[in-house]
Amino acid sequence: MKQTSAPRSSGRRAAGRGAQAAADPTRDIAFDIVTGVIEHRRMLETSMENSPAARQAEPRDRAAAHRLGASVLRHMGTATEVLSPFLKKEPPEPVRAVLLIGVAQLLFLGTPVHAAVATSVALARRRGLAPFAGLVNAVLRRIAQNGDACLDGLDQERLDVPPWLWTSWGRMARPIAAALGMEPPLDLSMRPGCLPPPGGEVLPNGTVRFPAGTRVTELPGFAEGAFWVQDAAATLPARLLDVKEGERVADLCAAPGGKTAQLAFAGAEVTAVERDARRVERLQANLARLKLSDTVRVVQADATQWRPEAPLDAVLLDAPCSATGTVRRHPDALWIKRPRDLAGLAAGQQALLKAARDMLRPGGRLVYAVCSLQPEEGPACARAAEEMGLIADPFTPEELSFLPQARTPEGWLRTHPGLWAEQGGMDGFFAARFRRA
Ligand SMILES: C[S@@+](CC[C@H](N)C(=O)[O-])C[C@H]1O[C@@H](n2cnc3c(N)ncnc32)[C@H](O)[C@@H]1O
User: Fold this and answer.
1) Closest residue to atom 11 of ligand 1, CA basis
2) Any ligand 1 atom below 6 A from CB of 304
3) C-alpha angle 93-94-98 in degrees, rounded to nearest 5
4) ipTM confidence score
5) CATH superfamily of 233-435
6) Active-site pick, 150, 321, 371, 381
7) Whole-model pTM?
8) Which of 40, 204, 229, 431 could potentially form a cystine with 369 if both were Cys, beta carbons 3.0 to 4.6 Å apart?
């Protein structure tokens, strides 16, 4: 059984018929998260923002709900399979959501049985599902009786990945799925010259890694801007652009700004281009904390339309994508995207590639990156870039000597959550480098 830490439980107060009005913000928010993702295909964070319960909740309840909702999404295939022998027919979606929340607590979060069952029954009542309260009670009690035996013989890794994604990931599928069951660690990139907070593990690329659940704001140096949160794999595209002091560089699709910070600390003159107004605010706040506000120029614009005043030495294009490479951190991505979404995403990525090409001086460099594991958004776009006249500039073995498994025969970068598995894995990224003729 794959287990993560248990959510705080308010089960005793919620037990029994008369307790349906008792407050249980954790499960209420988790219900909004799960139904938002499954029924409305909204991202976990968006579902949380839309949750009325979340707006009034304490930060610790929101954090517990986030962990509970993410656990449901991480184990949804397995939990569905566990439920199926106990259900004569498919229940309505909201009832299924309540049951999944109950199963996640019983089998994956180590919540005490009485709390997991009673809070699920109370949740069903609060959500207008009282006619199903008996079903929820009976099914969860039987699952609790069987305990871990419910998981015997189940290929959890296979079940927890939608079949179309499993197929598309080929040989990477099983190591990726194995990493999915675990909460990912906290990765930090250090501001040059700053010492890592004590207790972190320094990885071969310089990332400082802390165990899952570490609160970044509580680490010494956070407020002073000594570091920023950035997955180990996410550091690689900006590093591979290899910017020099004083080079004029654009970071397209820049928020929240991890790669912008890398480019600026490397000494480049950076313009960060971001379309979304709220994400521009987040980018600016992050740059302010890192004391980069006076160094980086931030532009709110659509990068397909924006052009620099003069041709640039280098462009980093971290394009919007299906984000399947970040499913460890964002398990909602597993259930939101559909195969038919990929063509539209790839068209957007290629429009951005054309724009990036047009911003470069002759000989200027471009790194194209996506946090996707899908071939349509990675290799297919790299080939499209060459058809646009960009010249491939493969990553060399020396540049990736600390992670040789991530270098493809074409000289592209392909990371996935199964790499550096012993140290806690990494996000999935694809990157390729080009020069303008
Ligand atoms: C993958 S995230 C970028 C992460 C960022 N590069 C980092 O390392 O922190 C993609 C970002 O692209 C922005 N975006 C999407 N389409 C865009 C466009 N046409 N022009 C500019 N920004 C865009 C999104 O709002 C989002 O903030």
Assistant:
1) 253
2) yes
3) 115
4) 0.98
5) Vaccinia Virus protein VP39 (3.40.50.150)
6) 371
7) 0.90
8) 431
